[in-house]
């Protein structure tokens, strides 16, 4: 049995930089036609020169002519001239509340002072991608941020807003309220709850932000994705960290899922008897919502069992050691 996917896309990806970029970029480029690359590097990607330089580095590392890195700018106050110059080089601008996650120290500290840039973005049709969490109690952060989303969606009704890596039933319900709002859902939030992270021994490789939530939230995410929701698309939020940053006190937040994303999604959709919806979740919805024409790339998944390696170099993948029923045809499993 085989599944053929046309131009699959990862709409939320961390590639890091330097040797880490060189290690992980080929793993995504081999099985995706494109990916939306996050800008929260050590020195944030917050001007056109940095966008162009980072894109060149990604292309040099990806080893694939049929892969497009869709670039993003790190949100700050931009002038009209800056946005006009950058518009054709980016897919959107990513807003991080200050200090809310990895690499967000230079994020927005005053959400009441962003409207000038949002107004320009709406006018120029530049999408707004958002890490939507407050600084409140950790399980309530995404729910508390919904008032911010509501204010933006109502104030700027022609601005395309993407709620990144949603994790709650409340967020799923919110997407339905505003036609200018889309969302991404990760692989790991379709498989784990907070109990998997800290219900037994602490599992640092399952620690991410936003954190995994309750069973009812996982079921709401699955129900939306497996019903073919027209404004919810796949974004892995694959976020690699070396072992010394993952297995330590104060471990880094991030789950590395790039090598297993499509096989594990195929397994999930098959179990729900909805393999027919995998194409739309991994490509068609994103193409429609963003107006994309990705490279013509065919990825074939076949019913061929394999075991997820414990490590890819120095990186532990999501599902390490797990036996999977689906694999990417012709892909060598590098360890």
Q: What helical percentage do the residues reach? A: 25-40%
Q: Report the radius of gyration as a whole number of Å.
A: 19 Å
Overall 3D form: globular
Strand content: 5-15%
Biggest sheet descriptor: 8 strands, parallel
Determine the mean pLDDT.
96
Which structural class should the secondary elements be placed in? alpha/beta
Compressed to H and E, one letter per element, the order equals EEHEHEHEHEHEHEHHEHHHEEEE
What features would you describe in this structure?
The protein is of the alpha/beta class and 335 residues long. Helix content is 33%, strand content 15%. It is built from 11 helices and 13 strands. It has helices spanning 18-29, 48-62, 80-86, 115-124, 141-155, 169-175, 194-198, 215-225, 243-246, 261-271, 278-290, and strands spanning 2-6, 9-13, 34-37, 68-74, 92-95, 128-130, 161-163, 181-185, 232-234, 298-302, 306-307, 323-324, 327-328. The strands form 3 sheets. An 8-stranded parallel beta sheet has the order 2-3-4-5-6-7-8-9. Helix 3 links the parallel strand 4 (68-74) and strand 5 (92-95). The radius of gyration is 19 Å and the shape is globular.
């Amino acid at each position: 049995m085989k599944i053929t996917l046309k131009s699959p896309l990862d709409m939320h990806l961390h590639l890091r930089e330097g040797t880490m970029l060189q290690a992980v970029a080929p793993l995504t480029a081999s099985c995706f036609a494109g990916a939306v690359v996050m800008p929260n590097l050590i020195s944030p990607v917050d001007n056109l020169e940095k966008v162009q330089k980072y894109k060149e580095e990604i292309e040099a590392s990806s080893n694939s002519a049929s892969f497009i890195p869709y670039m993003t700018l790190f949100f700050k106050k931009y002038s009209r001239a800056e946005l006009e110059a950058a518009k054709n080089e980016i897919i959107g601008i990513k807003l991080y509340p200050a200090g809310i996650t990895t690499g967000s120290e230079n994020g927005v500290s005053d959400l009441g002072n962003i409207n000038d840039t949002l107004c320009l973005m709406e006018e120029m049709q530049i999408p707004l991608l958002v890490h939507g969490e407050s600084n409140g109690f950790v399980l309530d952060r995404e729910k508390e941020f919904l008032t911010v989303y509501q204010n933006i969606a109502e104030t700027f009704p022609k601005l395309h807003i993407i709620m990144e890596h949603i994790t709650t039933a409340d967020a799923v319900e919110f997407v339905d309220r505003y036609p200018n709002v889309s969302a991404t859902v990760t692989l790991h939030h379709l498989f784990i709850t907070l109990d998997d992270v800290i219900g037994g021994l602490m599992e640092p490789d399952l620690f991410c932000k936003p954190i995994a939530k309750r069973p009812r939230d996982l079921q709401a995410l699955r129900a939306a994705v497996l019903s073919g929701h027209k404004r919810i698309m796949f974004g892995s939020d694959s976020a690699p960290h070396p072992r010394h940053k993952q297995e330590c006190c104060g471990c880094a937040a991030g789950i590395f899922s790039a090598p297993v994303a499509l096989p594990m999604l195929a397994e999930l959709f098959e179990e729900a008897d909805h393999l027919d919806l995998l194409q739309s979740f991994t490509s068609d919805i994103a193409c429609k919502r963003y107006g994309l024409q990705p490279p013509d790339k065919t990825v074939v998944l076949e019913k061929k069992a394999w075991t997820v390696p414990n490590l890819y170099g120095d990186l532990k993948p999501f599902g390490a050691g797990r036996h999977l029923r689906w694999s990417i045809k012709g892909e060598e499993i590098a360890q």
